[in-house]
Amino acid sequence: MCQSNWQCILCMHLCLHPLSLYLSPDNAYDPDVNAKQFWIDKTQIKEQDCLIFMDNGNGLDYERMHKMLSFGYSDKRVINGKHPIGLYGNGFKSGSMRLGKDAIVFSKSQDGDTMQVGMLSQSYLAQIKADEIIVPIISFQCLPHSQYILL
């Protein structure tokens, strides 16, 4: 089992648009997320400004990560009278791409058995000269003693 409970979104090649800052906290607010805390930090990685958004919510398994990174998909619903923000499945994608050219999402599933890494990257798509949007997602199984197996 993985020790920490985290979900982290890392945006690189920072070009900040103030309205975009609302979208990651909005996703942490949604009723099915159960985040009690939300952190925003700025750092540099290889001389690139990066924003880090992290919450202690439920996290995402592979299926939910795939849905979050897919365009135009949303299964949000009211839970215990708490209404979700956003209904069309475009908020994370449009918000993160207004903040920067690349977003890397790290998440641990709610049961703690798997971890996912998803990449929404304009830089990658330009480099491979893609004519369609490709969003790689890698899954790992968490084992005792901080060991991981690529799934």
TrEMBL record:
<dbReference type="GO" id="GO:0016887">
    <property type="term" value="F:ATP hydrolysis activity"/>
</dbReference>
<dbReference type="Pfam" id="PF13589">
    <property type="entry name" value="HATPase_c_3"/>
</dbReference>
<dbReference type="GO" id="GO:0016605">
    <property type="term" value="C:PML body"/>
</dbReference>
<dbReference type="InterPro" id="IPR045261">
    <property type="entry name" value="MORC_ATPase"/>
</dbReference>
<dbReference type="InterPro" id="IPR036890">
    <property type="entry name" value="HATPase_C_sf"/>
</dbReference>
<keyword id="KW-0732">Signal</keyword>
<protein>
    <recommendedName>
        <fullName>Morc S5 domain-containing protein</fullName>
    </recommendedName>
</protein>
<feature type="signal peptide">
    <location>
        <begin position="1"/>
        <end position="22"/>
    </location>
</feature>
